[in-house]
Amino acid sequence: MNIKKRGFTLIELLVTVAIISIISTVAVLRLNIIREIKIKNEVNTLANNVYFAKEKAMASGNSVIFKINKDYYTISQKSGLKVEEMEARRVNLNYLRKYGHGTEKFEFLPTGSVNGADSIRFSCDNGYNYILTVGVAGGYSHVSKEKIE
C-alpha cells in the first residue's frame, strides 16, 4: 500500500520560521543603521551651515543671520537695513525636532563674533538629544549629544 504524504514536517516548519526570523532581524537592524546615518548627516549639515554663516559674514563684511524654528532653518545676509534670504539655504529638519515653538536666531557679525549666543536643544527618536551651542567668543559652534534618561 502506497500512502502519499501531504503537508510539512515539524522540522521543515521550524527551519522556515528560523530563516524568516533571521531575515527580519537583519532588515530591522539595517533600517536602524540607515536612520542613524540620516540623523548624523542632518546634524553635520546643521553644524556645517552654522559654520558657513559665520564664514560668510567674515568674507562678505555683512552680518549673516542664522534663524531656526521648529521645522526648518534659514541663512540670510543682512546688508544695511535689507535682509536677503540666501537661495538653497532653507533646510528642512527631518530627523531633529527643536524644543520650544519660538524662532531663535544667531546674528554673525563681520568680525566673526555673534549676537544672541545660545544653545538650542533638539530631540530625536534615536534615544539622544542634540545640543547646538554657539558661543560669543569668535562665534564658536559645537554640536553635542546626550542620552535621554
UniProtKB/TrEMBL annotation:
Keywords, in A-Z order: Membrane, Transmembrane, Transmembrane helix
Pfam families: N_methyl
InterPro entries: N_methyl_site (IPR012902), Pilin-like (IPR045584)
Record-annotated membrane-spanning stretches: 7-29
Superkingdom of this protein's organism: Bacteria
Protein name: Prepilin-type cleavage/methylation N-terminal domain protein
